[in-house]
Amino acid sequence: xxxxxxxxxxxxxxxxxxxxxxSVGVLGLTATEVQGYGRQGGKTExxxxxxxxxxxxxxxxxxxxxxxxxxxxxxxxxxxxANSGKIGDGKxxxxxxxxxxxxxxxxxxxxxx
Amino acid sequence: xxxxxxxxxxxxxxxxxxxxxxSVGVLGLTATEVQGYGRQGGKTExxxxxxxxxxxxxxxxxxxxxxxxxxxxxxxxxxxxANSGKIGDGKxxxxxxxxxxxxxxxxxxxxxx
Amino acid sequence: xxxxxxxxxxxxxxxxxxxxxxSVGVLGLTATEVQGYGRQGGKTExxxxxxxxxxxxxxxxxxxxxxxxxxxxxxxxxxxxANSGKIGDGKxxxxxxxxxxxxxxxxxxxxxx
Amino acid sequence: xxxxxxxxxxxxxxxxxxMTPGLAFFYGGMDRGRNVLNMLMMNFYCVLIVPLxxxxxGYSLTQGEGNFIGTLDHFGLKGIGILGEDAGGTLATIAFLxxxxxxxxxxxxxxxxxxxxxxxxxxxxxxxxxxxxxxVFRWVYxxxxxxxxxxxxxxxxxxxxxxxxxxxxxxxVLGKRKGWPEEGHPPHSMPLVxxxxxxxxxxxxxxxxxxxxxxxxxxxxAFMNTFLAAAAAGFAWCVVERVRDGHFTNLGAASGxxxxxxxxxxxxxxxxxxxxxxxxxxxxxICCYAVRLKNRLGYDDALxxxxxxxxxxxxxxxxxxxxxxxEYFGADFMEGLFYGGGVKLLAEQALANLxxxxxxxxxxxxxxxxxxxxxxxxxxxxxxxxxxxxxxxxEAAYH
Amino acid sequence: xxxxxxxxxxxxxxxxxxMTPGLAFFYGGMDRGRNVLNMLMMNFYCVLIVPLxxxxxGYSLTQGEGNFIGTLDHFGLKGIGILGEDAGGTLATIAFLxxxxxxxxxxxxxxxxxxxxxxxxxxxxxxxxxxxxxxVFRWVYxxxxxxxxxxxxxxxxxxxxxxxxxxxxxxxVLGKRKGWPEEGHPPHSMPLVxxxxxxxxxxxxxxxxxxxxxxxxxxxxAFMNTFLAAAAAGFAWCVVERVRDGHFTNLGAASGxxxxxxxxxxxxxxxxxxxxxxxxxxxxxICCYAVRLKNRLGYDDALxxxxxxxxxxxxxxxxxxxxxxxEYFGADFMEGLFYGGGVKLLAEQALANLxxxxxxxxxxxxxxxxxxxxxxxxxxxxxxxxxxxxxxxxEAAYH
Amino acid sequence: xxxxxxxxxxxxxxxxxxMTPGLAFFYGGMDRGRNVLNMLMMNFYCVLIVPLxxxxxGYSLTQGEGNFIGTLDHFGLKGIGILGEDAGGTLATIAFLxxxxxxxxxxxxxxxxxxxxxxxxxxxxxxxxxxxxxxVFRWVYxxxxxxxxxxxxxxxxxxxxxxxxxxxxxxxVLGKRKGWPEEGHPPHSMPLVxxxxxxxxxxxxxxxxxxxxxxxxxxxxAFMNTFLAAAAAGFAWCVVERVRDGHFTNLGAASGxxxxxxxxxxxxxxxxxxxxxxxxxxxxxICCYAVRLKNRLGYDDALxxxxxxxxxxxxxxxxxxxxxxxEYFGADFMEGLFYGGGVKLLAEQALANLxxxxxxxxxxxxxxxxxxxxxxxxxxxxxxxxxxxxxxxxEAAYH
Lengths: 113, 113, 113, 399, 399, 399
Ligand SMILES: Nc1ncnc2c1ncn2[C@@H]1O[C@H](COP(=O)(O)OP(=O)(O)O)[C@@H](O)[C@H]1O
Ligand SMILES: Nc1ncnc2c1ncn2[C@@H]1O[C@H](COP(=O)(O)OP(=O)(O)O)[C@@H](O)[C@H]1O
Ligand SMILES: Nc1ncnc2c1ncn2[C@@H]1O[C@H](COP(=O)(O)OP(=O)(O)O)[C@@H](O)[C@H]1O
Description:
The complex is a heterohexamer, with 3 copies of chain A and 3 copies of chain D.
Chain A: E1 2-9, H1 14-23, E2 29-37, E3 43-47, E4 50-54, E5 57-67, H2 71-82, E6 91-96, E7 99-102
Antiparallel strand pairs in A: 1-5, 1-6, 2-5, 3-4
Chain D: H1 3-30, H2 36-61, H3 89-112, H4 118-140, H5 144-147, H6 156-174, H7 190-209, H8 217-245, H9 250-267, H10 275-290, H11 293-297, H12 305-323, H13 344-373, H14 381-386, H15 388-393
Helix pairs in contact in D: 1-2, 1-3, 1-7, 2-3, 2-4, 3-4, 3-6, 4-6, 4-13, 6-12, 6-13, 7-8, 7-9, 8-9, 8-10, 9-10, 9-12, 10-12, 12-13
Bound molecules: adenosine-5'-diphosphate (3 copies).
One adenosine-5'-diphosphate sits at the interface of chains B and C.
């Protein structure tokens, strides 16, 4: 049974995370530009002298399907690479997946990843 | 065990939802611009006199990790704030999460949220 | 109990997939522009004579809430329509959903879809 | 007109035509992405309808006898040819002035952004042009205000003060945008704003220096003044922001440049030396504070037409009373205070602007009330939320 | 050439140079985001290769004796100096005309958008310039068509009809885009379209009024006509859309403006008074319907080169037969129908366009067939889906 | 100055003013989306502060006696009027040259992109203008280098070589961007780059042909040369890329056009016939390779100011030694090698550039070191990662 590991990370860490995952044998992933709100707080922009608070900061969401047995390793790898020690580094979570299929071949399960 | 609550809402409701969640103690969330297709139907644009139907309408997806015990409250809060009573207000769903980790500290579980 | 079916597909297949799902009675879905990394490999751009590899290729993520009983049908329909037989056609997976609610009406469960 | 001057007037006219798209981008970039096309359309619409109105009837009404309004002698350009010694000089001037007529109502669009019904705007523009712009233009150029001795080189009173105060009247009737002022309305594309700014500055050389209607020393001086006042005002606005808010901003630079251009408009052909720098610095600093008035006073002038065009135009027009330098015109106009002329010119400047303000505000208010009672001036709340591009024009800016 | 006229020709030449980028943005904004760079490149390419061709051989072939083609007497600008009384007037004119030569093939790019191999385009442009543009230009200006008395002030027949019909021939060989017409192809950036529109209108003053090749009354009249026809056509297009489809649209305004500019191009120096407004209204309304022909007839003219340039150019050229006003030129050219001239001029206009249409269509079709059989004219289906920016240019427009 | 020439100088000045925004978009589009406003601001800032500096003291320091620096006789434009026979010709020229002064430091911004503190830039610009630009300008025009016989029509040495080598000195002190060169820095908006390119080419006609300071044959020749060299260089760059890398690219076309414009700048008024094509081809091909030097030599010249402006300017300036054609100027300047003039002119060209290079590099390096030791020249690493738009200007380009 595969799992889906999702991580919210800082955008400039994406390249590093991708490379690190690749080096532990992860062959694919999907990334999405998202907006994060959290302890990190937003940023302040000015507009003709009026300040306004932008509550959301840009983040990237990384989604990786992995065999459940590898979830811990993948989480560790992401955590290590995405960590800058500063507030706003993000979260990682995993969810059990009921079914996975590769569209091209119709394969199911861990083979499909 | 935490859960992941996901909501598809109308974009202009995001700010209200964020504030409402904040007021019930939700400290973080992740928002994504998405395109929704549903009962609401799309919109019609014109282009040199030819009309074409744009099936998708802009929506925002809100994802919140919460302790499972708080799922119902969070759903209620989102539903209340995002409701405009009009078609297209969106959906909320929750999923059980196997593991959660905060990248910065390495904490797991409800503390990581 | 509903499930959430997620598919990563090639962008130009979105319209076809939407229509196919509609024809089997799926009334709504949510689409997101994402960046995919996988076996397909990236593309090479040039910039004043220097080549650089863009590892990610544009994909679309389709998310559909369906009654669990229809998961297999929906997966089959998506797979059939999104298949071009070429590398990079993408993945489909499903996850069990704990709760679903329609914001407008407050309905829960399969009715909410 | 000799061929050099003819070329100058034609080039200037083309430059001023280019300013309306420039203004559209300046405003449109500041707008949100779901309203940008409505903004562009409000501006482009002006340059479609007003030129026709201008050559058919508007120009004629600014000419001939009459202290308050001209005649219909040149209805449909009757009697205007290109032959003879004039060699088309008059026709060239009419084209040049037609560009001014087109951009003036366009200035107002920045105030009513994000909520005005396009059908109301489509009626507002021609009506306003005829009953506000044309008479005020006449008063200032060849009518009772000009005759009394007030000065307005390229349209400080006739254009910027006029449109700026009309903008205030219009938003008075229209009301605030949903969510204003709590919600921020950040510019959806600052590069588009800066494209507009570049075009505006470029075009404004035609606007001001072209108003000499000849390639002569006065045109050169107006050119130099346009250059220096814009730079000085942009710099001043940036410095105020840096000191007050901590940053040099692009929007500050752009706003300051425009404020300086507005302020030098009435004065461009009457001042010299370092005066344009002084005018620019004053205008830049004052407008940088003036754009905040709306928050204090509670009128929703979306893109600061009042703070930049009304205030900037007024500042510029009044500074003529100090800096006017008769050297440039022959002795038949009054000196400014700093050139020994006393307060007479300053008083005339004040009077001219006052007259324009009263007329423009009152009549604009009246037009808007009439529109409100008939076609309605405001889009539905739903349309406002969804964005006017889609609801009013069935278009989307980006795909 | 006197210094005023020299300045006017140089300024006009610069304005026309600016039009090719303007056209690129007008088209590029209408294109989808994955093909926009291919569109820009097709346009910019014209302004890289054609100027070289023009000064080396093209210009010369439009000059000298010869009803159908000129000579090689001025090969490599031989014999063209800047000294003497002419003071560079001829060289300035050659530069001015070089800008026209560059933009003409660029017009065609809008039709073949989204699917043409860039290598084929790279060959098409110089070949087409030499075997289609240069001869037709010669016929119209100084060759057999012009000699018979037909009129084309700034290139209605020689440029717009010529390129417009060539576009039809080109897409005839090229075929439809995958998914056309079922799939909509919405403009990826309307602000970019409007930037292009603004630049085009601005530049077109040089195109038309510069074609007087002097700063004189005819230039002024051409300028005014360019102003009014564009406004009138933009307005007419918008009104048709409002009545027919329910909205004023930006793309309608932009398309109407361009249609009006195209239509007034041949007529600009021959008509006067309110005639440009009439021409604009007619062209705007007709083109607004003409762009729908492709759906009915099934040719995939992606960005409506046929509907706007061919139809607009033809309409404008034929209206000369009605509105031509000999007052503007001396008596050595024919009057239009409305000025008592009978149908003679109209017949000549029809003949001139017919000749251009036949030659341009046939030869363009031939070139495209040859290209198809050799390098191929169409990108792979995969490349079409992925977008031409990446497949043809290894670039992406936005990051 | 006669009215035709006056018009030409004014139009040219407006065109050059427009180039600074053009440059801002050219650079800004190439930058990433989180640094684009910083880039625009660096450019717009130049056109706010330098004009004031120029009329107050800069212009004066380029005039009068003095081989190395002028005098303060015209401090604050003292003694410059618009009356008399000159009719404002001098004042027009001062405005025209003020545009040059503004754009020169702006060129440097492309090199220091993405990492320079804006406060350091705000000081750098006026200081550099006074201690580098003004003296070098003086040497070349009316000072010791010009007196020896070297030629620089519109600022190849004084502007492009000068700013280009200063850029190298500046990045020498500033250091590389985080992640350079491993990380690619793709242009965030190629359409913005092409908008900049279009504006630059358009404006450059004023830059080069306006430098004749009259509407005469030399202006026409400079105009034609500007047209042809840009086309030829753009074409050459594209061909090199096609052959070497496999594709025609938009960025290649744009870069080539700019390289050609840079190269023809010093030569525009001294060469003729097919020479501009030769100069363009050489410059386009050489610069296409020169932009790769930075990777080999390890200096992070972000947007290739060295490879395009320094190398292009140098190539153009040296080609004068071959192609200079005295026909254009009267006999009081030297012939190029190909016109029988021997290597004398070439040697003078080399010397002039060497002098400019040494002075500019050394003084710029000194200024940067001083800035580094005082206000600091580099933003924090965090700010660099987050983007300078937000950290330096509290603005975001797109919402
Ligand atoms: N409860 C949550 N649910 C979903 N996403 C969250 C949640 N809390 C934080 N995030 C995401 O993680 C990012 C970082 O969180 P933040 O609280 O700022 O810092 P940290 O992760 O260091 O505690 C946020 O920008 C947001 O995208
Ligand atoms: N079955 C579904 N799966 C996933 N998302 C859905 C589904 N149905 C609707 N949505 C999302 O919810 C949004 C609103 O749904 P819609 O059917 O238009 O209105 P309502 O929620 O009021 O019934 C859609 O735009 C889409 O994003
Ligand atoms: N392990 C994975 N986890 C998440 N998404 C994946 C994974 N592998 C592939 N994908 C997504 O599926 C897309 C297609 O995968 P790819 O390996 O290129 O081809 P194929 O699906 O044909 O094997 C990728 O671009 C990526 O978006």
